[in-house]
Amino acid sequence: SKMNGRQLLSFYKPEMNRDYNQLLSLEGDLREAISKNQLSLYYQPKVDVRTGYISGMEALVRWKHPEKGMISPGEFIPIAEETGVITQLDDWVLREACKQSQVWIDRGYAPERIAVNVSAREIQRRDYAEKVRNILSETLLDPRYLEIEVTEDSVMQNTEQCIRTMQDLRALGVSLSIDDFGTGYSSLSYLREFPIHYLKIDQAFIKGVLTEPSDAEIVKAMIQLADAFQIEVVAEGVEREEVLGFLRENECSYYQGYHFSKPVPAEEMESYLSKKEKY
Ligand code: C2E
Ligand code: CA
Ligand code: CA
Ligand code: CA
Q1: Ligand 1, atom 19: nearest CA belongs to which residue?
Q2: In terms of DSSP bridges, do strands 54-65 and 114-118 run parallel, antiparallel, or are they unpaired?
Q3: Cβ partners under 8 Å of residue 219, min gap 6
Q4: How far is the CA of 160 from the centre of ligand 1 (A)?
Q5: With a 6 A CB cut-off, is 117 part of the ligand 1 pocket?
Q6: Does the beta carbon of 201 lie inside 6 Å of ligand 1?
Q7: What pTM does this model have?
C-alpha cells in the first residue's frame, strides 16, 4: 500500500523523532542515489486501442536502495518534492529517457514517443522549456519523440505560468499530456485552455467502468469532449480485457496497463520494440 511522506519518514529513521533531521537524511540519500546511479527507469508501453500496436511508452523512475531494496516512486517523489531534490531527479529522468530513446533509434527500431513525468514545481519554472531544449540537443533526440506528462493538479496550481511553459514546449515540437485527469479540481471546460495533445484518464475511473455506471458515464463524457477539442485520450490502469472492450466501443485512442504490460526494464522494452518490427 502507498505511504505518504510523513509515514515514510517514520519508517525511514524510526529512532529519530525530529522530522527536519529525517528529511535532511532522506534528502541526502536521494542525492546520493542520483549521483551513485541507484535510480533506474522502467518503461510502460502505450498501446493503440484499435490496432493493439505499441504507439509509445512512459518512463517511470525506480530507486534501488542499497539496504532497503526497491522503493516505489509513490513513496519518494513526495519527499523529493518537499526537499527540492525533485529538480535533480526530474532532470536525471529526462536526460536518461532521451538518451535511451536515441539509443533505440540508433539501433534501428521504429521510433516511439517517450513520455516523462514532470513535477508541479518544475513545470512552473520559467526556464523549464529552455532546460528541455538543452537536454534534447545534448542527447540528439528529435523533439517530436518526447512527450511531457503534467498532472492536472500541477496545472491548476499556477495555471497561467503552466500554460506559458506548455506553449513554449509545444513550440519546440514536444508533445504534452495532462496526467491523472479527473482527480484534480479543473472542469472539463478547462481542456480548451491547455495546449495539449493527450489526456490521460486516471485509473480510478477506468477501473470502475464495468461496475460503476457513473464512472462509465464520466469516461464517455471525457472521451467525447476531448474529441471535440482534438485531444487524444489515453486510459490508464487497464487490467482486464472487458475494460479494453469498453474503450474500443467508446473510441478511446490509447491505453496503458497491466493487461498489456507492467512497466519493464530497458531490456524488456527493447524486446517489445523488436517484436513490433517483425509484424
Ligand atoms: P503515474 O504517472 O500516474 O504513473 C502510473 C502508475 O500506475 C505507475 O506507478 C504504474 O506502474 C502504475 N500502473 C500502470 N498500469 C497499471 C495497472 O494496470 N494497474 C495498476 N494498479 N497500476 C498500474 P509507479 O511507477 O509506481 O509511479 C507512481 C507515480 O510516481 C506516477 O504516477 C508519477 O506520478 C510518479 N512518478 C513516477 N516516475 C516519476 C518521475 O520520473 N518524475 C516524477 N516527477 N514523478 C514520477
Ligand atoms: Ca504519468
Ligand atoms: Ca497517471
Ligand atoms: Ca495516477
Answers
A1: 237
A2: parallel
A3: 201, 205, 206, 209, 235, 246, 250, 252
A4: 26
A5: yes
A6: no
A7: 0.92
Task: Report which DSSP code applies to 144.
Answer: G
Residue at grid coordinates 469532449? 225
Nine cell digits for residue 169: 514546449
- Give CA separation, 159 vs 56, 130, 250, in Å: 27, 19, 30
Asked whether this complex has an ipTM greater than 0.90, the answer is: yes
Would you say 62 and 97 are in contact if contact means Cβ atoms under 8 Å apart? no
Please write the tens of the pLDDT for every residue from 7-45.
554 454 444 455 677 667 778 899 999 999 899 999 999
The reply to whether ligand 1 has any atom less than 6 angstroms from the CB of 237 is yes
pLDDT of residue 277: 54
Among the listed residues 90, 75, 166, 163, the one whose alpha carbon sits nearest the alpha carbon of residue 121: 90
Cα separations (Å) of 279 from 54, 106, 241? 11, 20, 22
The alpha carbons of the chain give a radius of gyration, in whole angstroms, of 19
CB of 60 closer than 6 A to ligand 1? yes
If you take atom 27 of ligand 1, which residue's CA is the nearest one?
Answer: 73
Ligand 1 atom nearest to 151, measured from its CA: 34
Taking a 5 Å cut-off on Cβ, the residues next to ion ligand 4 are 180
Q: Are 215 and 223 in contact (CB under 8 A)?
A: no
∠ CA 222-225-226, rounded to 5°: 80
